[in-house]
Amino acid sequence: MTKKGLFNQVLQIAVVVKDLEEAMKNYWDKWGIGPWSVYTFDPNTVKDMILHGKREDYAMRLALAEIGNVQWELIQPLDDKSIYADFLKEHGEGLHHVALGVESYEEVMKLAEERGIEVIQGGTWFGFTYTYLDTREDLATIVELYNQPEGWEFPEPEDTYPKNS
């Protein structure tokens, strides 16, 4: 009998950076990775922010680009509260998490709770829920899950790199 996996797709690879503008420039100018769409996640754009299982606001600025079928994300923390700020302090810049696709967000969240896996950060951005699970002990990385409503589309970016992309 074949065991069915919980995860069915790699959706995103995320890197925490000190300076988003510098990182986008480096990725695009030196490596041709981009173009980038830029968004700010803060209490003005994200509802129901969660940090270590409790309701708490945090802020970051991020840029998204596609490499094949996988989204690449650069994240610059804008405060010292988020899991990104913690990562930057402890490790410096680097790979932070992987977003994985699932058939049922609710089922995986229930399983995570049963296994004592902590929700270390999350929120709802324009109706799109993102949740970070502390899977470092089992998977050596943080896993992000999405609960994306049917027909959901990205909002217009605040900025792009290079400009007018």
Task: Please describe the topology of this protein.
Blueprint: E1 7-16, H1 20-31, E2 36-41, E3 46-51, E4 54-55, E5 60-67, E6 70-77, H2 83-91, E7 94-102, H3 105-114, E8 119-125, E9 128-133, H4 136-139, E10 142-147, E11 159-161
Parallel strand pairs: 1-6, 7-10
Antiparallel strand pairs: 1-7, 2-5, 2-11, 3-4, 3-8, 5-6, 8-9, 9-10
Pfam families: Glyoxalase_4
GO molecular function: metal ion binding; methylmalonyl-CoA epimerase activity
InterPro entries: Glyas_Bleomycin-R_OHBP_Dase (IPR029068), MMCE/EMCE_epimerase (IPR051785), VOC_core (IPR037523)
Could you please describe the fold and organization of this structure?
- This protein is an alpha+beta fold.
- It contains four helices and eleven strands; from the N terminus they run βαβββββαβαββαββ.
- An eleven-stranded mixed beta sheet has the order 4-3-8-9-10-7-1-6-5-2-11.
- β5 and β6 form a beta hairpin.
- The mean pLDDT is 95.
Distinctive features:
alpha+beta; 2,3-Dihydroxybiphenyl 1,2-Dioxygenase, domain 1; 21% helix; globular; metal ion binding; metal-binding; Glyas_Bleomycin-R_OHBP_Dase
How would you sum up this structure in a few lines?
Helix content is 21%, strand content 43%. By secondary structure, it is an alpha+beta fold. The chain is globular.
